[in-house]
Amino acid sequence: MSEQVKRTRSATEERPIRVAVITVSDRAYQGIYKDESGPKVAAAFPKDLYEVVITKIVPDEIKAIANEIINCVDNERVDVVVTTGGAGCSARDVTPDATASVLHREVIGFSEVIRLANRDKNPNLILSRGVSGIRNQSVIINLPGNPENALLAIESVLPAIPHCIKTVRQQRPSKRASSTTSGSTLHGQKSGTHLSSKTKTR
């Protein structure tokens, strides 16, 4: 086991970091093409520190994305939710909007690093509208949809995730953060409310 893994394992108190990977894509959801980004992102998490417990594909719809994030955090109690896809500038790229509606606090550094750390390899990464932050005691990070860009993005922020998890695990959830009905209003409903929408498991 590497020294870095030993340090990060100590930082997270030995318990594996539970991860959910959500692919956001109309065409992958409809089965028009095979999802490549989700598996590539899931494989990037070192198995001796992380456990990927959920992989899902959802369409490019705000309700579907918000629902799945809420389910992963509030019901499945994962430590990290990463989304891949829907973070660009087109009209159907609504992942950042859905994510922002269910966050309790922003952690903008993750998204800043994703946009800037790899700009020499792919200048288009600065066009990502991805957001990142905390809901309850879970970290949520938006990644690009292109498989290679998604891999560059997750690799650029992996070193900071264990310390962030350690920090949120140590804090006592506030009454606001622990409520599953807290958050920003989404289409006239509280974002924590489970919105009716279908998701699909790979």
TrEMBL record:
The keyword Coiled coil does not apply. Pfam families: MoCF_biosynth (PF00994). SUPFAM superfamilies: Molybdenum cofactor biosynthesis proteins (SSF53218). Keywords: Molybdenum cofactor biosynthesis. Signal peptide: none annotated. Residues 168-202 are annotated as: Disordered. GO terms for biological process: Mo-molybdopterin cofactor biosynthetic process. Residues 20-164 form the MoaB/Mog domain. Residues 168-196 have a biased composition (Polar residues). Pathway: Cofactor biosynthesis; molybdopterin biosynthesis. NCBIfam families: molyb_syn. This is MogA/MoaB family molybdenum cofactor biosynthesis protein.
